[in-house]
Design goal:
This protein is mainly alpha-helical and 343 residues long. The protein has helices spanning 2-19, 54-63, 74-86, 88-111, 121-126, 146-151, 166-184, 187-196, 198-207, 214-217, 223-240, 269-276, 280-286, 308-316, 318-322, 329-342, and strands at 26-30, 35-39, 258-262, 267-268, 294-295, 303-307. It has a two-stranded antiparallel ribbon.
């Protein structure tokens, strides 16, 4: 009986050595009296960076089905190397955020009959940060300047900045990019114009002798734009093949499910959070365009996003909450003052 136990144990060990580490695999050691179960826990080496070659990347790109032209060259390859080797933390940050915003981008682009890959442009613009601010004053996921934003109904005051509203800014970006595509007839050139303006693109076309594609006018574009489109294309590859480069999330981030509620009045968001047991940080995360934890009279009709878990409570008790969450002059001053102190 003892020999049988040893034999079965030895066989189990051999199976383990032959098959290697299998996540979640269960190994059973049998004898007549008991069954012992051992589970092998998964282990990941997050710091390991796999080797890769230009030819391997080129083969993978050729397998991709994209709605835009995408052919590997040295410039794009250098940015792929940057995102998967030299700045992996940035790429992991983007991986954490993409599930929050990509569904919105995908549905908006599909509604406008635009290539799905354009969703990656927001990564290059803002790192998928709806509160991103550039050194020249561009804001939001799609980095609209005030004048361009106003052309697409993105309005700004000291309390509300529509450029930081994910839905409004994504709709505006889709319309603007589509107008640039109609202007130049090429998506890569349209992206270049989004970065440096249509005037600079027209100048590059003239200086190139009337060429029409991005890579034909590449040398005549502003320096920043010459890196902008290749970074965008590199990110398409990187996010499609992240696992091949051992880019995994140690702590995945899941988007907050939400519904919209409209109060049709000035609103004190801190008081709403207090009355409903909401986390004020969750409200701010869901409503990044609201700057001072308040909705002023100028935007009294906007709908606020609230966690789905509290949406029914708020909707069913909206009338009874209305007076308690109404914005007073005293609270307006306090909230605006607190925001200035924080910033």
């Amino acid at each position: 009986m003892k020999m049988k136990t040893i034999t079965n144990s030895f066989i189990a060990i051999l199976i383990f050595l032959v098959n290697g580490v299998t996540f979640g695999q269960e190994i059973y050691l049998y004898n007549n009296a008991s069954i012992e179960e051992e589970t092998i826990s998964p282990t990941y080496q997050f710091d390991y960076i796999p080797d890769f070659t230009y030819d391997e990347v080129a083969r993978k790109i050729r397998k991709m089905e994209t709605g835009m032209p995408f052919e590997l060259n040295d410039r794009i390859f250098s940015f792929i190397n940057y995102f998967v080797v030299r700045n992996r933390e940035y790429t992991k940050m983007v991986l954490q955020r993409k599930d929050v915003f990509f569904p919105l981008f995908e549905s908006t682009l599909a509604a406008h009959d635009m290539p799905d890959e354009i969703k990656y442009l927001s990564i290059i613009e803002s790192g998928l940060n709806p509160r991103a601010r550039s050194r020249v004053g561009a804001m939001g996921l799609w980095q609209f300047m005030p004048a361009t934003g106003k052309m697409y109904n993105l309005y700004v005051n000291s309390d509300i900045d529509d450029r930081m509203d994910p839905e409004l800014s994504t709709e505006a970006a889709a319309k603007y990019l589509k107008s640039l595509y109609r202007m130049f007839g090429d998506w890569e050139v349209a992206l270049a114009a989004y970065n440096c303006g249509p005037g600079n693109v027209r100048k590059a076309i003239r200086r190139s002798g009337g060429k029409k594609t991005f890579w034909e006018i590449y040398n005549y574009l502003p320096r920043e734009t010459r890196g902008y489109v290749p970074q965008f294309q590199a990110m398409i590859y990187v996010l499609n093949y992240a696992e091949d480069h051992n880019l995994f999330l140690e702590e995945p981030v899941y988007p907050i499910a939400y519904d919209k509620v409209r109060f049709n009045q000035e609103l004190d968001l801190e008081q709403l959070a207090y009355m409903t047991g909401l986390c004020i940080e969750d409200l701010e995360s869901l409503n990044p365009s609201i700057q001072n934890r308040l909705i002023p009279d100028s935007h009294r009709h906007i709908a606020i996003r609230v966690p789905k878990s509290k949406a029914n409570l708020i909707t069913e008790n909206k009338e009874s909450f209305a007076e308690a969450v109404k914005l007073t002059d005293e609270r307006s001053l306090a909230l605006r003052s607190n925001n200035k102190n924080i910033s």
